[in-house]
Amino acid sequence: MDGIDRYRRALRGFGELVRAVPEDAWARPSPCPGWTAADVVEHVTGAQATLLALLGEGSDPIDGPGIRERWLAAEARVLAALADPTVAGRRHDTPLGPMSSSDLLAASVVEPLVHGWDLARAIGVDDALDEELAAGCLDVARRHEAVLRGPGMYGPALDVPADAAAGRALLSFLGRRP
To answer: What is the DSSP letter of 57?
Structure first.
């Protein structure tokens, strides 16, 4: 599975969680210190606008009357962009250096995947990570650790048993307590 397919899968998984948020749960705290369920969704929605710009798909703001509607608009725009066969062949200048669209998207899976766990925890639903996506994210996170540990990003790595499943290992590497 290439980076585009991996990102599509992670994005859809996050979208399923957003669709499952009860109206009275937006203010629930998430595992991200100081962030609510709404904050997590707004953050990942904003990340989609950034991703679209990096992919060369415009920098229009993502609009909608509410949190869920903004997410749905973002998800639709990204999925439409990924359906364009010319996206795969593009190269991009990114904060991680020059990359193909596939590599950029593979590196970006961490955003909807890990914040999906944050959202699931906030709203009290199954928080199990897709183990295949988590394994790929863990490899990417280790390669780009210096960027991920930047100010306001992920916390310090926590100890995890050597035989931990990929999802647990990824969350622990990024400072989450699964």
So the answer is: S
CATH of the domain at 108: 1.20.120.450
CA distance 169 to 144: 16
The 10s digit of each residue's pLDDT in 125-159 is 999 999 999 999 999 999 988 888 877 788 899 99
Which tens digits make up the pLDDT trace of 54-69?
A: 898 888 888 889 999 9
Those residues whose C-beta lies under 8 Å from the C-beta of residue 70, and which sit 6 or more positions away, are 42, 45, 62, 63, 64
Domain assignment present for residue 178? The answer is no
Parent domain of 27: 3-173
DSSP conformational letter for 126: -
Beta pairing, strands 91-94 & 97-100: antiparallel
Q: What is the 8-class DSSP label of residue 90?
A: -
In a domain, 48, yes or no: yes
**79 contacts 71 by C-beta, under 8 angstroms:** no
Max distance between CA atoms of the chain, in angstroms, equals: 46
| Tokens 């669209």 sit on residue | 101
What total of structural domains would you count in the chain? 1
